[in-house]
Amino acid sequence: MLEPSSSTYFLSNVESISAGFNSIGLIIAGAFIVVILKFTPLLKSLSNFTKLKPKHIVVIAFSIFIISFTTSLFNGLGVHHVQNAILTNQTQIISGCITDHKIVQGNSREEMFVVSDVKFKYNDYATEQYFFANRDHDTLIKNGQCVTIVFLPKQENGILRIDKV
């Protein structure tokens, strides 16, 4: 379903293995930090340099690790949900011509358009698994352009593939 063709403008790159390895990598990095802080004079040097007690440095390091691990875990779950939706054929395919294309400028760029009465929106700060605005702003997404879109209706119409018609 997500195989490119000669008319493919965008194809999602939903990573399957990296989501699990990010968490494993963080666990290894956390263990490495613990070993360095526990068995080297680094903790004392950091304490002298920052004027913080060693236990405060450990709490800060542990807090950063927990935040990183949690973020990685939630990102991995998001990728897993997208993969599962693709594997269980929860995608929909729609064809038609783009209408009501709008660009909203702010701190980022958000674009909206409609194809056959289905509304899509995307931005230039989106996660990797969905279509996002091209920062060069040279795109085929414009009124009148006919496309076929593979998307996930249960996940805010996340665009997985766009083909020119």
Element order: H for helix, E for strand: EHHHEEEEE
Task: Please state the CA-atom Rg, rounded to the nearest Å.
Answer: 22 Å
Q: Report strand %.
A: 25-35%
Kindly report the spatial arrangement of strands forming the biggest sheet: 1-6-5-2-3-4
Average pLDDT level: 81
3D shape: elongated
What characterizes the major β-sheet? 6 strands, antiparallel
- Class from helix and strand fractions: alpha+beta
Low-confidence stretches: none
Helix content: 25-40%
Quickly count the domains: 2
Distance N to C terminus:
17 Å
According to DSSP, the number of beta strands is 6
Number of helical regions = 3
Textual characterization of the structure:
By secondary structure, the protein is an alpha+beta fold. It folds into two domains: 8-12 and 91-164, no CATH class; 18-87. The chain contains three helices and six strands, in the order βαααβββββ. The chain has helices spanning 18-39, 42-50, 54-87; strands at residues 8-11, 92-105, 109-115, 118-123, 146-152, 158-164. β2 and β3 form a beta hairpin. It is elongated. The two termini are 17 Å apart.
Quick description:
The chain has 165 residues and is an alpha+beta fold. Helices cover 39% and strands 27% of the residues. Strand 3 and strand 4 (118-123) form a beta hairpin.
What's the arrangement of secondary structure elements?
Elements: E1 8-11, H1 18-39, H2 42-50, H3 54-87, E2 92-105, E3 109-115, E4 118-123, E5 146-152, E6 158-164
Antiparallel strand pairs: 1-6, 2-3, 2-5, 3-4, 5-6
